[in-house]
Amino acid sequence: MTAPPNHALFLDFDGTLVEIVDRPDAVAVGAGVPQTLERLSQALGGALAIVSGRPIAFLDGKLAPFHGDAAGLHGVERRLAGVLHPCRPEEHPALRRGIAELHEALDPIENVIIEDKGCSVAVHWRMAPAEEARAKGLLEDLAARLGAEYRIQHGKMVAEILPALSGKGRIIAHFMESAPYAGRRPVFIGDDLTDENGFETVNRLGGVAVRIGDGDTCASHRLPDVPALYATLERWANAGGVDLEGLPEA
């Protein structure tokens, strides 16, 4: 069945379009996936966006030749209809000083990774689970000192400090006010705690939220893993649009 051309599709990156790996810079996109995204974006009239905690430049490098709409750093930066609103690290001097402190405290600890994103910072302890309490404690202390302009966000073996006004739900709602998204039914696919805010927004807007993998969720539908999403995206691209029929319930 050909899907009605009335959907807007939002896709998370880590754990959704790529498998979670020990080192965040080592992720790999499946062969042919960027081309599938390009075909599906065209079928949706451009109403397809990547919504990620990663910088847009990183997403572009991994998803080339697909360079469509995107929100990076949980919406701190965005690209809509080719117009980029970038992250500006110089606007976050207190955060930059805090990141230097994190490096001083955590660089000597093997396998704890500091991911400096310019306008936010994430600390990963996937390869050093015994250091979770220390890493979390340092981030929570820094977030408290930074004050209300920043917030801390937890994910799978990672925590991140980012501007308080960021959030996947907020940026999805922003995209939904602009062409070609306005007036369509949003569909958001993600896998982590950081995506639940986006799921809540999509549910509120009458859309469909899809969780990848296990875990408690407010999403109405679920796919088991990244390969299942790849197959779904390929099916939708071949159908000429998003087809929710047969999508497993959560």
From TrEMBL:
Keywords: Hydrolase, Magnesium, Metal-binding
EC number, UniProt record: 3.1.3.12
Names of the cofactor(s): Mg(2+)
GO molecular function list: metal ion binding; trehalose-phosphatase activity
Protein name (record): Trehalose 6-phosphate phosphatase
Keyword Metal-binding found: yes
Family statement: Belongs to the trehalose phosphatase family.
Cited Gene3D superfamilies: HAD superfamily/HAD-like, Trehalose-6-phosphate phosphatase related protein, domain 2
GO biological process entries: trehalose biosynthetic process
Keyword Lipid biosynthesis: no
Pfam entry (one): Trehalose_PPase
Catalytic activity line of the entry: alpha,alpha-trehalose 6-phosphate + H2O = alpha,alpha-trehalose + phosphate
Gene name for this UniProt entry: otsB
Function (record text): Removes the phosphate from trehalose 6-phosphate to produce free trehalose.
Pathway: Glycan biosynthesis; trehalose biosynthesis
Species in which this protein is naturally found: Salinarimonas ramus
